[in-house]
Specification:
Jelly Rolls; 8 strands; alpha+beta
């Protein structure tokens, strides 16, 4: 073998080593990368996470809207801007010098009652009573044949009484129409 052949063999050996190293580098580089299927699976997983988070955001936005509405309602109650008709224009027939419990109910907020009355007697009265903690409230207002009475109220069980002190024996009954509005 000649020296030239030895040099060629050495050169070819070096080239083979270099090509082998390059091939190993390429194989190592591609073996660390995920396949297309792996990438598609990751995209699907991330999209599901985004959808789940968007759903939670929608739920939280709904909760915020609900709490905002509730807050507005309570602010309206604090400002005494809400009302409810407890008795809507009901006519009661009573014997003279008599009284009738027209409502026993539970009120949940502090406020007041507006009681409008039209009656056939000058002696018609409204009485409101309740107990709140240690406070006992019992007030009577004579409204006569037509009038409006106002009563402050606190939360609790309340009793509303309609009465008259009519003594004219020719008048057998007293007819009274009552509307009670609870302002809170």
């Amino acid at each position: 073998m000649s020296k030239n052949n030895n040099n060629i063999i050495i050169a070819l050996g070096i080239i083979c080593v270099i090509l082998s190293a390059g091939l190993i580098a390429v194989v190592a580089n591609y073996s660390g990368r995920p396949s297309t299927d792996d990438l598609e699976s990751q995209v699907t997983s991330l999209q599901n996470q985004i959808n789940s988070l968007n759903s939670k955001v929608s739920d939280y936005e709904k909760q915020i809207d609900d709490l905002t509405d509730e807050n507005k309602e309570y602010a309206s109650i604090i400002a005494l801007e809400e009302n409810m008709v407890l008795i809507g224009g009901i006519t009661y027939e009573q014997d003279i010098d008599n009284e009738t419990v027209i409502s026993e109910c539970e009120l949940y907020y502090a406020g007041y009652l507006e009681i409008q009355v039209e009656s056939t007697s000058d002696t018609t009265y409204i009485q409101v009573s309740y107990k709140h903690n240690d406070l006992e409230f019992n007030q009577t207002v004579t409204v006569g044949q037509e009038g409006t009475a106002y009563f402050p109220v606190l939360p609790g069980d309340i009793t509303i009484i309609l009465g008259n002190t009519e003594t004219d024996v020719e008048t057998e009954t007293v007819d009274t129409t009552v509307t009670v509005t609870y302002i809170f």
